[in-house]
């Protein structure tokens, strides 16, 4: 609306400076040769569509021009595009077709500034007798003295909607990532490399909150936003922006699902999804809400086993890369090419899927003219509509998935969202809306089916190292308890180690850090060493002191063994809570014999999987045993009897000797 009002204000000014004439070489009007000055041309805004009786309004920015009197703006309109291949060629300035219109405006005559500094309005009429469709429009900044010396140029499109109403616009679900490379480092610190990009995404979504989109957040990125004040502001903006929009569930970090399952790490896949869903719900959604548990957007190659696993976890709706799918039959009509199909995860188990249109994804590029890229995407969507306008059998839909590596800008997103708002031929929706409103594709009167094509074998995950680290972490968690946040933090590092964005050596660094942290914490639970404990009676208690230097309560299991000491079964394996720095536990024992014996003490996690500490104490028993007492008493009695008999014999012998 703003551009249409501005067009009315400047149309007369543009018309005064406009001129038409015969085309010179390359389709440009002829003119005297001159040295072209320097300058740059970019798109600030434009009409997303033009109805009958309206002009295309372009708002362009010209920078770097020293003398406006030496340059002019030229606008060429070309014939309606008839196939999408040619449309895609026009993005590079090729296959523009026949020139139908030309407007030439000396720059010094049109300076308006309504779009900001160095900005200009141009009003371009549609071609005479135009019908509904998409028309390439080339805009040039060139010298007034030499029209062949083009300083700067771009190609956009005029989307002409000849008649209303449009009963079946093309439905589009735009899937936007909220993603950065892993921010969580092996040592536990977090650092977001592209926080400004996430802020731009959040701000644009919040400013145009009434246009449906699909958010595909990386949970680890959401966690990282909580570290700084700026990140928390961006997270709050995102939380406002997702209201009424679809938010997908996914792994904590992007993972190679086929590689995880090939390594028999299905439990890790489950841990990724559980942690991811919990973080998205906690960080992004209102209380009681959960991310969509049914729709999986595959940005990386996927295989049959992965589909079956996802189906078992409740994901029955898919968005799959085109490169991962068998090609459609050449003769399949355009209507059914923009509809969902079925794919068989396993015999008898089918899932419904849309293809992620790779040409739509290609419009999400980094750098260059962001507003132009957004309007080229809008024109591409409009062209898909005009392939089968007002399709009578239920409508069509497409999915535009922004690449994970894409760096969003506010200019691109605002131009895209505003261009989708109230667009008569393109209707923004969610993936949920697509799956529920667009009928299934049909091919030769049968449901449209596609199959997966083999993808390159994934790089293997270090299954043994991951399983060992997870087992140690589970044991550690049983030691410190659920109320301690450290196991979850370590688990996050273990999950991050599985990211597809990490090299093998970097993954190993995360695993090493997890194991080293557990080892360091468990080393702070200490036992006495080199002690000798004396028992003065046959039965007694052995005091054992435990020192907990972790700074938080821990739960342990104490296991005691000795060859010469008898312990009750409940004391041989005893659970113990260490809530203070020093804790002394007493263990009743019974000595089998006197003398020295070893007492082996092992401290393990409550689940028994993690050994924490061990020591060997010496127990010295000075009490005689029952057998010893009997033997000693018997020996003493024998000696008494022997001495008594010997004494009597001696007296008798003395009596018999004569004096």
What does this structure look like?
This protein has 5 domains: 2-161, Macroglobulin (MG2) domain (Immunoglobulin-like); 170-326 and 353-447, 7-stranded beta/alpha barrel (Alpha-Beta Barrel), CATH 3.20.110.20; 463-522, no CATH class; 525-623, Immunoglobulin-like (Sandwich); 626-659. It contains 18 helices and 28 strands. Strand 12, helix 8 and strand 13 (317-321) form a beta-alpha-beta unit.
The name of the CATH architecture of the largest domain is Alpha-Beta Barrel
Distance between the termini: 156 Å
Number of domains: 5
CATH structural fold name of the largest domain:
7-stranded beta/alpha barrel
What's the CATH C level of the largest domain? Alpha Beta
Rg, Å, rounded: 40 Å
Q: Tally the helices: what do you get?
A: 18
Side-by-side strand order of the widest sheet:
2-8-7-4-5
Helical content stands at 25-40%
Shape: elongated
Can you give keywords for this protein?
27% strand; five-stranded mixed beta sheet; alpha/beta; five-stranded parallel beta sheet; 33% helix; 18 helices; 7-stranded beta/alpha barrel; 5 domains; 659 residues
Concise synopsis of the structure shown:
This protein is α/β, with parallel strands linked by helices and 659 residues long. It is built from 18 helices and 28 strands.
Topology of helices and strands:
Layout: H1 2-17, E1 40-46, E2 50-51, E3 56-63, E4 71-78, H2 84-90, E5 99-106, E6 119-124, E7 133-143, E8 150-161, E9 170-178, H3 195-207, E10 214-217, H4 219-225, H5 229-241, E11 246-247, H6 257-262, H7 266-284, E12 295-297, H8 304-312, E13 317-321, H9 334-337, E14 341-346, E15 349-356, H10 358-361, H11 370-387, E16 397-401, H12 410-420, E17 426-429, H13 431-437, E18 442-443, E19 446-447, H14 463-480, H15 486-496, H16 504-522, E20 525-526, E21 532-535, E22 539-548, E23 554-561, E24 565-566, H17 569-572, E25 573-578, E26 582-591, E27 595-604, E28 611-621, H18 626-656
Parallel strand pairs: 2-8, 9-10, 9-16, 9-17, 10-11, 12-13, 13-15, 21-28
Antiparallel strand pairs: 1-3, 3-6, 4-5, 4-7, 7-8, 14-15, 18-19, 20-22, 22-26, 23-25, 23-27, 24-26, 27-28
Helix pairs in contact: 3-5, 3-12, 4-7, 11-12, 14-15, 14-16, 15-16
């Amino acid at each position: 609306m703003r551009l249409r009002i501005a067009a009315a204000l400047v149309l007369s000014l543009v018309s005064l400076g406009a001129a038409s004439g015969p085309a010179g070489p390359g389709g440009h009007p002829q003119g005297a040769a001159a040295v072209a000055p320097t300058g740059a041309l970019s798109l600030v805004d434009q009409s997303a569509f033009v109805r009958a009786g309206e002009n295309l309004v372009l708002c362009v920015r010209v920078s770097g021009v020293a003398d406006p009197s030496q340059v002019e703006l030229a606008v060429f309109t070309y014939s309606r595009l008839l196939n999408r291949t040619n449309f895609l060629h026009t993005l590079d300035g090729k296959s523009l077709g026949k020139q139908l219109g030309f407007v030439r405006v000396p720059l010094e005559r049109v300076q308006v500034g309504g779009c900001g500094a160095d900005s200009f309005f141009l009003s371009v009429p549609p071609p005479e007798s135009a019908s509904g469709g998409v028309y390439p429009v080339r805009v040039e900044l060139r010298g007034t003295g030499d029209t062949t010396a083009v300083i700067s140029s771009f190609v956009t499109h005029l989307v002409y909607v000849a008649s209303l109403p449009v009963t079946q616009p093309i439905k589009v679900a735009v899937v936007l990532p909220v993603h950065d490379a892993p921010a969580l480092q092996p040592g536990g610190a977090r650092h977001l490399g592209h926080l400004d990009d996430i802020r731009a995404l959040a701000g644009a979504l919040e400013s145009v909150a009434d246009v449906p989109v699909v958010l595909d957040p990386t949970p680890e990125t959401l966690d990282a936003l909580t570290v700084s004040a700026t990140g928390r502001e961006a997270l709050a903006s995102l939380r406002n922006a997702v209201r009424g929009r679809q938010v997908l569930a996914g792994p904590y970090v992007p993972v190679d699902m086929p590689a995880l399952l090939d390594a028999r790490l299905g439990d890790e896949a489950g841990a990724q999804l559980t942690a991811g869903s919990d973080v998205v719900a906690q960080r992004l959604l209102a209380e009681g809400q959960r991310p969509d548990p049914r729709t999986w957007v595959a940005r990386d190659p996927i295989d049959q086993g992965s589909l079956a696993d996802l189906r078992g976890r409740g994901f029955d709706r898919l968005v799959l890369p085109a490169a991962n799918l068998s090609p459609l039959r050449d003769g399949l009509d355009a209507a059914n090419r923009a509809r969902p199909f079925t794919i068989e995860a396993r015999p008898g188990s089918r899932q419904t899927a849309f293809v992620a249109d790779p040409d739509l994804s290609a419009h999400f590029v980094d750098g260059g003219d962001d507003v132009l890229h957004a309007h080229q995407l809008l024109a591409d969507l409009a062209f898909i509509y005009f392939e089968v306008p007002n399709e009578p059998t239920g409508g069509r839909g497409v999915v535009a998935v922004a690449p994970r590596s894409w760096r969003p800008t506010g200019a691109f997103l605002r131009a895209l969202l505003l261009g989708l708002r109230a667009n008569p031929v393109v209707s923004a929706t969610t993936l949920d809306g697509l799956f529920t409103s667009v009928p299934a594709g049909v091919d030769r009167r049968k449901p449209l089916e596609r199959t997966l094509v083999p993808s390159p074998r994934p790089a293997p995950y270090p299954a043994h190292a991951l399983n060992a680290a997870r087992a140690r972490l589970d044991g550690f968690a049983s030691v410190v308890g659920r109320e301690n946040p450290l196991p979850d933090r370590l688990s996050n590092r273990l999950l991050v180690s599985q990211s597809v964005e990490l090299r093998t050596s970097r993954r190993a660094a995360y695993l090493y850090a997890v194991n080293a942290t557990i080892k360091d914490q468990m080393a702070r639970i200490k036992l006495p060493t080199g002690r000798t404990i004396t028992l003065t009676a046959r039965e007694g208690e052995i005091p054992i002191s435990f020192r907990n230097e972790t700074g938080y309560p821990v739960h342990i299991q104490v296991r005691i063994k000795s060859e010469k000491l008898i312990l009750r079964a409940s004391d041989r394996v005893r659970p113990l809570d260490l809530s203070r720095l020093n804790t002394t536990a007493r263990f009743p024992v019974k000595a089998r014999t006197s003398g020295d014996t070893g007492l082996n003490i092992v401290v393990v996690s409550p689940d028994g999987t993690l050994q924490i500490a061990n020591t060997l104490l010496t127990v010295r028993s000075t009490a005689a045993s029952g057998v010893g007492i009997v033997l000693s008493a018997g020996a003493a009695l024998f000696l008494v009897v022997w001495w008594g008999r010997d004494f009597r014999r001696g007296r008798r012998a003395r009596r018999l000797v004569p004096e």
